[in-house]
Design a protein that fits this description.
Blueprint lengths: L1 H7 L12 H5 L4 H12 L3 E2 L5 E2 L3 H22 L3 E3 L21 H11 L5 E5 L6 H7 L5 E8 L17 E6 L5 H16 L6 E6 L16 H14 L5 E5 L5 H15 L1
Parallel strand pairs: 3-8, 4-5, 4-7, 5-6, 7-8
Antiparallel strand pairs: 1-2
Helix pairs in contact: 4-5, 7-8, 8-9
């Protein structure tokens, strides 16, 4: 994938350092960050039954959040769309609780950075097969942020019912596994259309999870790479004034993950 992108334009690839502490504490309390850093410094450990830190995990998470922050700055300064290839993912992370492989809420950190730069409205779209419960919990009382999530139901973490509406800014699309991919595409797009009707975002943040692809070991959706590209194209044509920052979330078949990411990047550029 790197070679394919570099063949288009070698200046398109950038690296970023750790997120500034101020960007992180807009979303997570300092004591939580200190706790994570302390666990990593002591060699790591289990935070819950499926979220485990190694000695390098905190640095990886902070640098991942830093890449999200840098992507927002680049997108708003240049008007360009960006894709951020990071691990660990972030959409399950709560205010001061890690879960679901996630330590820091990257999408919300990105949205708050955009608002600190002057954006009034940020739309967060989550197409990971799991519901972004952390993202929802962190934005559901703030009408300046809107959150749209397509996810498998029922499935971990058990949240994301259509009745969960926040202050009218949450648009959940829970769907069973095994549906035709066109139905997932249509249903997410209908929810996005509802979210942006009369509400034009200044920036779009995508929680881009590829465990919603056919064949992923953790999910049962049937999407193919071209479906992610279609969503990106629809977002670009519907909200042409809003740059897009896509942040990698789940995806647990490496070859399928790569194909989904490449289709998304090509649609963004």
């Amino acid at each position: 994938m790197r070679e394919a992108i570099q063949a288009r334009d070698p200046t398109l690839l950038r690296e970023a350092g750790p997120a500034p502490r101020a960007a992180l504490t807009r979303v997570h309390p300092g004591r939580y960050l200190d706790l994570l850093e302390g666990i990593a410094t002591s060699g790591g450990g289990a935070l819950d039954h499926d979220t485990i830190m190694s000695r390098e995990s905190f640095e990886a998470a902070v640098c991942g959040a830093g890449a999200a922050v840098e992507a927002v700055r680049h997108a708003l300064d240049s008007g360009s769309n960006t894709f951020v290839a990071i691990r660990p993912p972030g959409h399950h992370a709560l205010h001061q609780t890690a879960m679901g492989f996630c330590l820091l809420a990257n999408a919300v950190i990105a949205a708050r950075e955009a608002q600190a730069m002057g954006c009034g409205r940020v739309l967060i779209v989550d197409w990971d097969v799991h519901h972004g419960n952390g993202t929802q919990a962190l934005v559901e009382r703030d009408p300046s942020l809107r959150f749209v999530s397509l996810h498998q139901w029922p499935l971990y973490p058990g949240t994301g019912a259509a009745s969960e509406r926040g202050v009218g800014n949450v648009f959940n699309v829970p769907r069973p596994p095994g549906l035709p991919p066109e139905q997932y595409v249509r249903d997410l797009w209908a929810a996005i259309g509802t979210a942006v009707t009369g509400w034009a975002p200044d920036l779009i943040v995508i929680s881009a999870g590829y465990d919603s692809m056919l064949g992923d070991p953790l999910g049962g959706f049937t999407l193919e790479p071209e479906h992610y590209a279609k969503w990106v194209g629809l977002l670009r044509s519907t909200c042409p004034e809003a740059p897009i920052v896509a942040l990698m979330e789940g995806g647990y078949d490496p070859d399928r993950l790569a194909a989904g990411v490449l289709a998304t990047v090509e649609a963004l550029i």
